[in-house]
Amino acid sequence: MTELVIDIAFGRLAAKAWGDPANPPMLALHGWLDNAASFAGLAPLLAENYIVALDFAGHGRSDHRAPGNWYHHVDHVSDVLEVVNQLGWLKFSLLGHSMGASIASIFAAAVPERVERLLLIEGLGPPTAEQDQTVAQLQRALLQRESAAAKTLRVFPDIETAIEARIKANGLSRQAAELLVERGIKSVEGGFSWSSDSRLMLASPLRYSESQILAILRGIRAPIVLVMADPPMPYFKAEIMQARIAAVENIRVIHVPGSHHLHLEQPAQVAPLLR
Description:
InterPro entries: AB_hydrolase_1 (IPR000073), AB_hydrolase_fold (IPR029058), AB_hydrolase_sf (IPR050266)
CATH class: Alpha Beta
Keywords: Hydrolase
Mean pLDDT: 95
GO molecular function: hydrolase activity
Family: Belongs to the AB hydrolase superfamily.
Structural class: alpha/beta
Organism: Pseudolysobacter antarcticus
Strand order of the largest sheet: 1-2-4-3-5-6-9-10
C-alpha cells in the first residue's frame, strides 16, 4: 500500500493505492463520512488490478472545499474526472460503496467511454426527492447552512472514545471502526476530532428526481456487478431499487448476508463476487 496526493482544481485529494501500477487500473470510491480505508481489506484481494482508493473532498485526509461552497454530488463527479486525468488513465474500472457507488453510477453514464467495469456495493444512483419536496428541501438546506457556522465538531478525549462512537453510529465491528477512525481523525486542542468537513452533515439544497436518475442510469454502457446486503437496508426501497436495476442493460445483482459495510466487514466473501 502506498499513499498518494493528487492535485486538482479545488485543492488536494489524498488516496491509498494497492498493487502494481502496470495492472489494469481501478478507482475505488468510499461512502459518505467514510474514507479510503474503507477498502483496506478488499483491495489487496483484488490484486489483478492497480487500485487507487480516493478520500473524497472533505473526507479523510483530503482538503475541504473553500468556505461558501456546498458538497454537491456533481462536484464529486467532476473531481473523479480530474483525478483519473491526473493519473493518466484513459480507461479504467470503478468500484464504489454507498455514496461512492452513487457517484460511480453518475460518472459511468456521463463519461461512458472511459469506464470499463462498474463494481457497486450497496448503491445504484443517489437518494432522490419528489418534485413537490423541492422547496422544502431548499429551505431546510439554507436554514442549516445559516446556522452551521456556530457549530463545532465533537472533541473526543482519546482515540478509543472516537472508535466507540463510530461503532455505535454504524454498528461496525471494532476492526472496521479502527480502520476508518485512524484515517478520519485529527489532533485538536483537548483531544481528537473528525477530520471530515462538518458541512457534509448539511442537507443538500437540490436533489435529483427519480425520473432523472433513471435517465442517467440508462446512459451506463459498462457491465455492472451490484452487491447488496441481505437483509436490505431500510433506506433502499425495494420498488425504487428494482426500477433502477431494470433501467440498466448489463447488470448482475448479488445479495450477500451482511450489513451496509459488508465490503469492509467481509472482504474475503465480497472479493470473489467482484472478480
